[in-house]
Amino acid sequence: MTYQITALPGDGIGPEILSGTLQILEKLSKKYHIDYNLETYDFGGAAIDNYGDPLPTSTLEACEKSDAILLGAIGGPKWNDHPKRPEAGLLALRKNLELYANLRPTKVVEGATRFSPLKEERVAGTDFVIVRELTGGLYFGEPKKLEENQAIDSLTYTKDEIERIAHAAFQLAENRNNKLASVDKENVLASSKLWRQTINKVSENYPNVEVEHLLVDACSMHLITRPTQFDVIVTENLFGDILSDEASVIPGSLGLSPSVSYGQKGTKLYEPIHGSAPDIAGKNIANPTGMVLSLAMCFRETFNQNEAADELENIVYQLIKDGITTPDLGGKASTEDIFNQILQQL
Ligand code: NAD
Ligand code: IPM
Ligand code: MN
């Protein structure tokens, strides 16, 4: 089979972290006899500049026909006052492809505890996945409007939306350590009350999975004090956005975290969780690890090539253990240095 892949470099550090990743894709695919067809499209600010739209029809159609989308990052100060921001393109892409489940893993690998801002003994062994609901909640609820003296965002969830993300999370927990933490704000929000009821109902289908309910404020604290006790965390869109950036620095840097998003349609979107990092764009110092680990997820999830994914992940983790890192982890390596090391070792 020939896989169809769409590359979306985007803005800021996006093109810097994606270009070397596509070279890795080429090399690793040859090694494991994976056939693919790759096309690159404008997205985000780059697409606003060329088409006046962050998600042009040509880009959306290419994505819809793809097995996998590899996205760098979008956004930047240049487009903050544009009527349609780059971020709106990303939200529209997720919504159009119905990518309701977003998996964001955090792992502190053995031999790399020293990069954590937390005490090494506290983070050793950390290995959990945040399952973030991606197409509902405050991001998409109506009405949504900004007037001179009032602004409205609506936090809505239907039972169906909660059920499908709950099944995704329980299934993942069953394939891991049968532990699920569901995060909400049930003491205040109606949507969280429905969330908790629905999680409890869905849990009846997964008797082996132990469920813990946490309020989001307390969870943000527990992530720091007891990160090793989490396995799968499921939460709504905005809470997942915030908690996953927090989680990403447990191993040392926002530049480390990958993600995959999926729905019923089959197309999967692979992207690091960080943004376009305008403060370091163009300097060849962005950490490409989150992007490269997203490619490893693509080998695992789309190509069904666990061995290739393991090989790539091991190379990436070994570089970190050896202290061959970009400046965000205290090293002196450039983005290109990291890519050259990975390519050489493949
Ligand atoms: P950001 O994630 O871009 O950067 C936050 C901080 O982390 C910055 O100091 C940055 O230099 C650092 N950082 C991020 N990724 C890094 C990497 N790979 N290597 C080293 N350092 C890294 O968040 P921000 O500055 O709040 O947002 C910048 C723009 O990115 C905004 O327009 C925002 O909307 C957008 N954004 C896009 C995505 C996406 O494309 N998926 C995600 C988050 C933010
Ligand atoms: C992310 C980003 C996006 C989000 C923005 C850019 C719309 O922060 O992927 O985490 O909030 O989902
Ligand atoms: Mn985010």
UniProtKB/TrEMBL annotation:
Its cofactor is Mn(2+); Mg(2+). It catalyses: (2R,3S)-3-isopropylmalate + NAD(+) = 4-methyl-2-oxopentanoate + CO2 + NADH. It is found in: Cytoplasm. GO terms for molecular function: 3-isopropylmalate dehydrogenase activity; magnesium ion binding; NAD binding. Mg(2+) binds at residues 217, 241, 245. The keyword NAD applies. Pathway: Amino-acid biosynthesis; L-leucine biosynthesis; L-leucine from 3-methyl-2-oxobutanoate: step 3/4. Its EC number is 1.1.1.85. Binds 1 Mg(2+) or Mn(2+) ion per subunit. NAD(+) binds at residues 275-287. Residues 4-342 form the Isopropylmalate dehydrogenase-like domain. Keywords: Amino-acid biosynthesis, Branched-chain amino acid biosynthesis, Cytoplasm, Leucine biosynthesis, Magnesium, Manganese, Metal-binding, NAD, Oxidoreductase. GO terms for biological process: L-leucine biosynthetic process. Substrate binds at residues 94, 104, 132, 217. GO terms for cellular component: cytosol. The record marks 139, 185 as: Important for catalysis. Its main location: cytoplasm. Catalyzes the oxidation of 3-carboxy-2-hydroxy-4-methylpentanoate (3-isopropylmalate) to 3-carboxy-4-methyl-2-oxopentanoate. The product decarboxylates to 4-methyl-2 oxopentanoate. Belongs to the isocitrate and isopropylmalate dehydrogenases family. LeuB type 1 subfamily. Homodimer. HAMAP family: LeuB_type1. NCBIfam families: leuB. This is 3-isopropylmalate dehydrogenase. It comes from Staphylococcus carnosus (strain TM300).
